[in-house]
C-alpha cells in the first residue's frame, strides 16, 4: 500500500505574512494550492514561527529576526490540509516559552500534530505517531542550531542536537532505532545546515546514511531555504 506524503520546508507565517492573513483571510495564500495539497495522505511543514495571541518575545540573546503569528495562522494551516508541523527550529521560541506552549495548544486544538518541541526535553524529543492510509508513521524531529532554545528537564524548548557531540548523535540514532521498531515507517525531520548553502556538506550526508542504517525510511531536511535534491539509499530517501 502506498502512502503519499507532501513535505514542505520552512513555513513562516509571521511579520508581513501575518498582516496579509489579517487582511485577506485564512484562505490566503494557499487556496490556489488546495487541490494539489488534497492529493496527499499527509501534508507536513516545518513551522518556523510561534503562533500566539500574547504580546511576548524571546528574552534570550538578541536575534536578527523574530517570527510570530496570530492564532488565525493555525486556521490557515488547517484549511490547507496540513496535518503535522515540526517545531524543532530556530524560531519556535521567538515569542518566548509561553508563546511556544501557546503554539502547541493552538495547533493541537486545530487537529494538527506537533513534534520537535515541548514543555520539557522529554516531550520535545517524543516522536509523533500518526495513522496515515493504513500505515503507522513515526516522526522524530531535531534542530542543530539555536542551542539557547533547547528544552531542559523542566523548561519548554526544542529538541536541540549538537552534531559535534558523538554522544548526542548516538542518542539520536538510538531514538530512531526504537521508533523504527514500533512503526511501519520512521521519518526523521532535521532542521540542519545554514541558510542558502549550495550543497549538502559531507558530514550531513554521513549522518543521513547512519540514520537510514538505524531504520529511518525518510530523512527530511530543511533550513537552507531552497531545495538541495534527493538521495536514495535503497528504499530509503534523504531530502
Descriptive notes:
The chain is of the alpha/beta class and 239 residues long. 29% of the residues lie in helices and 26% in strands. The chain has a 6-stranded mixed sheet, covered by helices on one side. Strands 1-2-5-6 form a 4-stranded parallel sheet. A hairpin with a 2-residue loop joins strand 8 (128-132) and strand 9. The longest helix has 17 residues, at 166-182. It is globular and about 45 Å long. The two termini are 22 Å apart.
Question: What can be said about this structure in brief?
Answer:
The protein is an alpha/beta fold and 239 residues long. It has seven helices and 14 strands.
Which characteristics define this entry?
239 residues, alpha/beta, 6-stranded mixed β-sheet, 4-stranded parallel β-sheet, 29% helix
**Order of helices and strands, N to C?**
EHHEEEHEHEEHEEEHEHEEE
Distance between the first and last residues' Cα:
22 Å
Shape: globular
Structural class from helices and strands? alpha/beta
Number of helices: 7
* Number of DSSP E strands: 14
Question: Beta-strand level of the residues, as a percent range?
Answer: 25-35%
Compile the SSE list and pairings:
Blueprint: E1 5-11, H1 15-24, H2 34-37, E2 42-47, E3 50-51, E4 68-69, H3 72-80, E5 82-86, H4 96-109, E6 113-115, E7 117-118, H5 121-124, E8 128-132, E9 135-143, E10 157-158, H6 166-182, E11 185-191, H7 202-213, E12 216-222, E13 231-233, E14 236-238
Parallel strand pairs: 1-2, 2-5, 3-4, 5-6, 9-11, 11-12, 12-14
Antiparallel strand pairs: 7-10, 8-9, 13-14
Amino acid at each position: 500500500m502506498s502512502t503519499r506524503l507532501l513535505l514542505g520546508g520552512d513555513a513562516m507565517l509571521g511579520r508581513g505574512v501575518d498582516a496579509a492573513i489579517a487582511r485577506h483571510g485564512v484562505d490566503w495564500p494557499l487556496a490556489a494550492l488546495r487541490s494539489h495539497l488534497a492529493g496527499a495522505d499527509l501534508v507536513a511543514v516545518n513551522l518556523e514561527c510561534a503562533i500566539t495571541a500574547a504580546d511576548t518575545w524571546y528574552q534570550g540573546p538578541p536575534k536578527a529576526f523574530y517570527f510570530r503569528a496570530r492564532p488565525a495562522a493555525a486556521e490557515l494551516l488547517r484549511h490547507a490540509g496540513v496535518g503535522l508541523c515540526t517545531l524543532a527550529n530556530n524560531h519556535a521560541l521567538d515569542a518566548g516559552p509561553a508563546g511556544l506552549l501557546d503554539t502547541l495548544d493552538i495547533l493541537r486544538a486545530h487537529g494538527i500534530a506537533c513534534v520537535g518541541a515541548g514543555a520539557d526535553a522529554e516531550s520535545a524529543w517524543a516522536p509523533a505517531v500518526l495513522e496515515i492510509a493504513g500505515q503507522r508513521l513515526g516522526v522524530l524531529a531535531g534542530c542543530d542550531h539555536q542551542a539557547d532554545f533547547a528544552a531542559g528537564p523542566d523548561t519548554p524548548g526544542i529538541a536541540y542536537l549538537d552534531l559535534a557531540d558523538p554522544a548526542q548523535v548516538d542518542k539520536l540514532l538510538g531514538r530512531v532505532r526504537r521508533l523504527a521498531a514500533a512503526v511501519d515507517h520512521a521519518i526523521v525531520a532535521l532542521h540542519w545546515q545554514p541558510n542558502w548553502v549550495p550543497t549538502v556538506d559531507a558530514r550531513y550526508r554521513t549522518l543521513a546514511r547512519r540514520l537510514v542504517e538505524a531504520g529511518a525510511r525518510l530523512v527530511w531536511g530543511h533550513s537552507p531555504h531552497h531545495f538541495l535534491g534527493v538521495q536514495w539509499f535503497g528504499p530509503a530517501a534523504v531530502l
